[in-house]
Amino acid sequence: MKKLLCFLTISILLISGCTKQANADNLMPLSFGAISSIDVLPIVIAEEKGYFEEEGLALNLELFTSANDRDAAFISGELEGMICDMIAINLYQNSDVDVKITSVTNGDFQLIGRKDEALTDLNDIVGRKVAISDNTSIEYALDKMVEHAGLSIDAPEKVIVPALPVRLEMLRNDQVDVAVLPEPFASLALQDGYKLLGSAHELGYYTSVTAFTQEVLEGKQKEVESFFSAYNKAVDYLNNHPVQDYEEIIFDVVGYPEEMKGSIHAPIFEKHALPTESDIANVIDWVKEKGLVDHDLQPAELLANFDF
Predict the structure, then answer these.
(1) I need a surface site. Which of 12, 42, 64, 286 has the fewest CB within 10 A?
(2) Which residues does the UniProt record annotate as the domain SsuA/THI5-like (predicted)?
């Protein structure tokens, strides 16, 4: 009887090991790219904690310091998926590059005002100089925040400053009244006493997304499903652990300065979810009004056509 039980135990272990190996062997690797920012954190955590390995997926993750470098890698075929924004998806589709939105992420843009008693909320930016990058999700976020306040999108004076460090310095030197900033630049300004006037996320505007080519969605559906399964595990980890447990990773990935250790706050991360067609339609209307596209794009054309 003991020999039989031993045999059965060994057999079960062997079968289990073979099943895991078969699952790993059946899944092809995925290549994915993103700019080093807070919204890539679930993917980095999934890699650090072995969640992709648990899913039998080999993910080749590449982090970039600029959108231009990421886009160059994507266009050259080095990347099968990426974190970008809905503006970029429109531009790709307009150029007949078939890339589809697969999920929203936690990328946020915050409206930061200088130390001025007359600046207290969005309504106070009328006639004020606001530093942005034009024809980007940053300008889109500003326009939507301004519209939400019941103002004309021409109410602020837009000052085009593409480089984020320069945008922050111009705010600090009172060369502009307000700047639209992502992390870590927003937190750096707030730590120095500048004012939070608005946030795209607080108003329900999510423009940052994950995306994969249609070729990958058709040919590697199981791999993409495994990607998001690992992603969701990482979101659970992030939302159920204090930021101190993964603070070092945030500093490595996002680039906060050392003096901010112990004072940063992580957002509540969202699990995999597609944006609504109305959200996408709003972005399509905006890029059309800006003259950035000439194709008659529809929301369904930009969305992945199956659930994960």
Answers:
(1) 12
(2) 39-244
